[in-house]
């Protein structure tokens, strides 16, 4: 049972929808807890209990292959049918015609405005203008991959080791480029080389991910952390922005 009396309206309903989408798409490779009940007048959610266990041999490989399976294109467009949340912050998901447009207008720009409003905007206006002008070219390979269902908040704390294998919790789902989940997994650590190798074997990445697109995708969670926590995340976001190629 999870509850948060300060949760914004619709917070746990959005979590329930995301868990349901992941559970339907994950198949046998990954566990996702079933939603048992939602609070009505008070914000809470009851989830299926998944028995914790040490990471068994092959855990990372199973997680990598399971994520690759989750990321198989499902015919949807860029975005999601409803807005949801990234942590406690609103996450707009209105569909866009192109992935570059979605990433600019639904991900980077809203968080950049929030960062500016709280006095934590990283980088200069010129640097952001340069990035936005280059996005179509930088993110063009996403059009070849197509949209995938994303966990959306894939850091190590949202991966559980259970008696049934790896499980995913606390999603911020939408349809986007599969490399977004991988970029976040690399940003905060906790995913070993065996995980990345298993994913790449099951679903090889297109050229340019590490050199160009990874930094573009890591800017979003860095902006979120800059808004929420400030400190070193502002400097890290500014440095990541400077390292992104000009196109």
What is the element layout, followed by pairings?
Elements: E1 2-3, H1 11-26, E2 35-38, E3 44-47, H2 59-70, E4 84-86, E5 89-91, H3 99-117, H4 125-138, H5 141-145, E6 148-150, E7 159-162, E8 165-168, E9 174-176, H6 179-188, H7 193-202, H8 209-229, H9 232-243
Helix pairs in contact: 2-7, 3-4, 3-8, 6-8, 8-9
- Structure class: alpha+beta
- Count of distinct strands: 9
Radius of gyration, taken over Cα atoms and rounded to an integer in Å: 18 Å
First-residue to last-residue Cα separation: 47 Å
Q: Which regions are unreliable across 5 or more consecutive residues at pLDDT < 50?
A: none
From N to C, what is the helix and strand string? EHEEHEEHHHEEEEHHHH
Mean pLDDT, to the nearest integer, reads 96
Q: Sheet bearing the most strands, described?
A: 3 strands, antiparallel
Number of continuous helical runs: 9
Strands ordered across the widest β-sheet: 1-3-2
